[in-house]
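Session log. Operator J.P. requested a structure for one protein chain; no other inputs attached. Running the standard single-chain path with token output.
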Amino acid sequence: MKKLLFTCIAATLLMACQQGPVRYTQNSPEIDTVKKLIANYDSKVFDTSMYADTSKTYYNTKDNPMSPSETMDYHKQTDTNYSSRGFQKENQDYEMVVTDDGETWVNCWLNWGGTLAANGKEVSIPIHLTYQFAEGKIVRELGYWDPTEIVLTLQQIEAEAKMAEENSASE
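Structure written below.
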């Protein structure tokens, strides 16, 4: 009887100690894919191979998604505003989670820095990016940051250029 009781207790403990699938990690192939995507951005390599063809990207919006090629075009267009730009190497945090619905997401918190080409002003912005994966490919990308400082500075530069143009035309 003691053996039976001991066997039942041991079996119960063994089952209780078995872990299910990993639902949170800071090391995964998906995180490596995101790190490669960030490195590509920093090197101005506009590669869409990490995205599924149907992937949708949303930056600071929940409407008007961009396709992978439109996302790369967006980066190329915004690059014209900067003499240099990229993600800072320190304080980068990455995590992968599997939701209760079985979706795989990689979240990252990064600091971005850039120097405006028009006036040399340096800007640093914290950014949150999150990527949903399916079958090893990015199927959805969400990016959130506060662009206010850059937008206001570019508007000021544009207004000053317009005023200078008007002043030279009236002379």
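Operator note: Residues 17-146 form a domain with the Nuclear Transport Factor 2; Chain: A, fold (CATH 3.10.450.50).
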